[in-house]
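User: Can you help me understand a structure? I only have the sequence.
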Amino acid sequence: MHQTFRERFFDAMEDGIAILGATPELARNSDTEYRYRPESAFWHLTGLDEPDAIAVFQRSGNTRRFLLFVRPKDPSMELWTGRRLGPEGAVKELGATEAWALEEFPVKLDDLLKGHDRLFLPLDGGSLQSQVLGALNRLVRKRRQPGPLPGEIRDVRRVTGELRLRKSAAELAWMEKAAKVTGEAFREVYRLTKPGLAEYQLRAVFPFIYGIHGGDWAFETIVAAGANACTLHYVSCRDRLKKGELVLFDAGAEMGFYAADVTRTIPVDGRFTKRQEQVYRVVLKAHKAAVDTVRPGVTIDEVHGAATIAITEGLLELGILKGKLKTLVSKGAFRPWFPHGTSHWLGLDVHDTGDYALDVEPRRLEEGMVITVEPGLYLGADDKRVPQPLRGMGIRIEDDVLVTATGHRVLTDDIPREPRDIEAAMATKARYLKALALPEPVKAAKPRSASTRTRAVKK
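Assistant: Let's start by predicting it. Here is the structure, written out as tokens:
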């Protein structure tokens, strides 16, 4: 898979040299590190999931070289932190043309840069950018030999991002696995949800289900009960679920480093009230309108446009907006209650790389692209523009949608989203966990009588 990605990258980069670095390990505190996850563009092209590595790609005519600088073999360190590929393993297992220990990179950097007119580099202000540009500036100032040096510098992630937009069959297989595992987690949470549970208890179910299927979380899970759902990126998850409220879940598994991203909003006690369902169906109608729009040749702006029309119609029906639909849509009157976009790219990253416009024109969807579709309504608890009975509801419905040759396919379609389907799923027995026990309430200690206290002292 990665060899194919490299060949596509070499085709796209033209003659020149490209340099990418792996994500470094990050300390969590004085003696532990965060779980390591490779930088997506680096892993996409190399298949290496070790930290402290640098990849170099050189193209000159028909000559293509894939070079790696990696951590050297070190039995004493491998005893503590696990096997390292080392330079020899990088050639044998990853297909590198040549490989060296990481400490050789600054020694060889000058010679690597010579002979190329074009340099592709992450322009993120990081240490690799500083190191490479520092070496290039030194070569330019002290140029003594004929031959080209890079005079054109491009952001390598513009190239890698473009390549990652259209998913291969192998990538789609991983995304389908991520969607399936995410669905397993959501259905289990449906079964477990009940009044009195804490948001953090339900949040804990998601990584548990991902983990037993060999996955991990793609992003921090959101569990937002009641009015907390009106905060778009609510992550504290300390409150308890109350009868008569809704609870919003935004979660996604990562399988093979590929992400899912799904949002559902369900009734805490298993059944929608009439008012809850009225607002929910506004968002559901917008979701359906947006998904139905997805096909090759359409822009993400058009997908968003379909959602905003339906949301605005709903706001009129709910009595929140007044006026003519066309005028309200053109003025963006929906924005106080639907402030975000409807879609983003999805892949190795939850908000995957890739330009949304080409020059000044919006990009048109193509077969193999994957986007989210996630309209929402957020009716704040203190928003006096909203009728009192509707305040404090935050509802979002999100699915992962693949653009096919003739239309689209919803990768997360099996996760219940219709009100009756949600209610039916919530009424079934848990599959992986018998139940989530409600925390025992803290009981006040009973005061002892004076005689009891006296006896205790005498003893």
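Now, to help you interpret it: The first strand starts at residue 16 and ends at 21. Residues 449-459 have pLDDT under 50 and may be disordered. Let me know which part you'd like to focus on.
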